[in-house]
Amino acid sequence: MTIGIISAMPEEIYAFTPYLQKTKSTTKGMRTYVQGELFGKNVVMVFSRWGKVAAATTVTQLINDFVVDEIIFTGVAGAITNNLNIGDIVIGKKLYQHDMDASPILPKYEIPLLKKSFFETDEKRRLKMEKAVKSFLQEFNLHINSNSAKEFKITKPSYFVGDIASGDEFINQSTRAKQIKIDLPDVMAVEMEGAAVAQVCYEYCIPFSIIRTISDNANDNAFIDFPAFIKNIASYYAFGIIKYYLA
Predict the structure, then answer these.
(1) pLDDT at residue 221, rounded to an integer
(2) Half-sphere exposure of residue 144, counting CA atoms within 13 Å on the CB side?
(3) Where are the alpha helices (DSSP H) in the chain?
(4) Tens digits of per-residue pLDDT, 96-141?
(5) In this structure, what DSSP letter does residue 5 have?
(6) Which residues contact 224 (CB under 8 A, 6 or more apart)?
(7) Which long-range contacts (CB under 8 A, 24 or more apart) does 145-148 make?
(8) Residue 130 appears among annotated catalytic residues
(9) Domain boundaries, the chain
(10) Span 75-246: which CATH code?
(11) CA pair distance 6, 63, nearest whole angstrom
(12) What is residue 150's predicted lDDT score, i.e. its pLDDT?
């Protein structure tokens, strides 16, 4: 069994590097796919770059050329619900494309030809991911440097299983976030890749998981020290969660 692990930025999975064994790198389409063993499991790791097109291109290549049995996409997201804080975790359930609108020909958000407005993650793997997240949070201090957590005011992070919306847009205005929330009231977080990965996996019948760390509130105050958050927080979240998932 081989698991594909994808992130939108190399920094989001750099914490894995020292633990990858028997590695082999293949460059295709300006992306480097690293095959190896991680905690005794066969994996292929790659960063997709930002956006739905980049993510879809990457996951299609991954499925066709590396024969993966499941895919995990990990990275950060912005919160559009009040009960999420920086450092919280969202395990994706339904993935929407918030910038898909072929109306009046089709209902808003419906994907042409597929007659679907969202793609749902595999329930069995979602439950397994939830267990991994619980284990990570129970041993949070073993994975996250206390000074880094303090810098971003992360004290008691929580996790949620919820819906995520993707679009080729960095949401940093309250009015835009509110509109998405009005149209898609169950969506908890927004990002730029997950729903594209979900659509490709659906069309290829590959089970997938989307796991997101909240880096900001998707509003006018969305700006933090993003590079520092990715390097010191998000990458170690990804490492810890996937470590428990593969155990």
Answers:
(1) 55
(2) 28
(3) 52-66, 123-138, 140-143, 146-151, 174-183, 194-204, 226-229, 235-246
(4) 999 999 999 999 999 999 999 999 999 999 999 999 999 999 999 9
(5) E
(6) 86, 152, 215, 216
(7) 145/232, 145/236, 148/228, 148/232, 148/233
(8) no
(9) 75-246
(10) 3.40.50.1580
(11) 12
(12) 93
Burial environment of residue 247 by CB neighbours within 10 A (0 to 12, 13 to 18, 19 or more): exposed
Question: Which of 88, 238, 211 has its CA nearest to residue 156?
Answer: 88
Percentage helix, strand, coil for the chain under 3-state DSSP, each rounded to 5? 40, 30, 30
| Both structure tokens of 64 | 């066709």
Q: How far apart are CA 101 and CA 99, in angstroms?
A: 6
Distances in whole angstroms, Cα of residue 136 to Cα of each of 185, 198, 236:
28, 24, 10
Sign of CA dihedral 212, 213, 215, 219: positive
Q: Is 143 helix (H, G, I), strand (E, B) or coil?
A: helix
DSSP string, 153-187: T-SS--EEEEEEEE-SS----HHHHHHHHHHSTTE
Give the active site residue among 11, 12, 110, 163: 12
Distance CA 111, CA 196 (A): 11
Per-residue pLDDT tens digits of the chain, which is 247 residues long: 999 999 988 888 778 888 999 999 999 999 999 999 999 999 999 999 999 999 999 999 999 999 999 999 999 999 999 899 999 999 999 999 999 999 999 999 999 999 999 999 999 999 999 999 999 999 999 999 999 999 999 999 999 999 999 999 877 777 888 889 999 999 999 999 999 999 999 999 999 999 999 998 755 555 568 888 998 999 999 999 999 999 8
Is 169 a catalytic site residue? no
Catalytic residue among 37, 163, 216, 220: 216
